[in-house]
Amino acid sequence: MAKGIIRASVLDTFINLSTKRLDGEFGDISSGTLSEGNIAFRSAVLEYAISTFNVNRTAAATHYNHAFKKVKAEAPELVVGLGRSDDKKGGRKLGGKNTPRDGSMVEQVELTYTVVRAKDGAVVANGVTKTVAEELITKAAKGKKAKLVIQ
């Protein structure tokens, strides 16, 4: 079966069941993502996809996530309490290569370069980014001017 047909059908089911979820037909949704009603809602949408289209749980979850993102963008009032909160950084733990384990952010420092003439070392530009330095070198080469290098 075509992916587009499954996605459209899961999207329709997601929207239809969302109104029932908000009315409390799946149970309590007041405690957020892990509430009884929200878990039951997600399971109902997944089971619909699995039973109707004979897809595995992973594929059903993909279609659920697609529907969730689309509804969140177009009608966010239908997905209140579903999904991770926006401050969770995609659910990843803090402590990646640019974030210390204590959660504070590392200040990003942009490197700067000095462009000099290769022949005599005279400074042409100081404190420029690598991109700007490379552009200066390219322009000088195209204009048949003195050879420039990054120092």
Plain-language structure description:
With 151 residues, the protein is mostly helical. Helix 1 (3-22) packs across helix 3 (57-74) and helix 2 (36-53) packs across helix 3 (57-74). The chain has a 3-stranded antiparallel β-sheet, covered by helices on one side. Strand 1 and strand 2 (123-128) form a beta hairpin. It has helices at 3-22, 36-53, 57-74, 130-142; strands at 113-117, 123-128, 148-150.
**Terminal Cα span:** 59 Å
Strand numbers in spatial order across the main sheet: 2-1-3
Q: How confident is the prediction overall: mean pLDDT?
A: 83
How much of the sequence lies in strands comes to 5-15%
Strand pairing plus helix content: what structural class? mainly alpha
Radius of gyration: 27 Å
Tally the beta strands.
3
Note the run of SSEs as H and E: HHHEEHE
How many domains make up the 3D coordinates? 2
User: How would a crystallographer describe the biggest sheet?
Assistant: 3 strands, antiparallel
Low-confidence stretches: none
Task: Summarize this entry quickly.
With 151 residues, the chain is mainly α. The protein has four helices and three strands, in the order H-H-H-E-E-H-E. The termini are far apart.
Layout of strands and helices, then pairs:
Layout: H1 3-22, H2 36-53, H3 57-74, E1 113-117, E2 123-128, H4 130-142, E3 148-150
Antiparallel strand pairs: 1-2, 1-3
Helix pairs in contact: 1-2, 1-3, 2-3
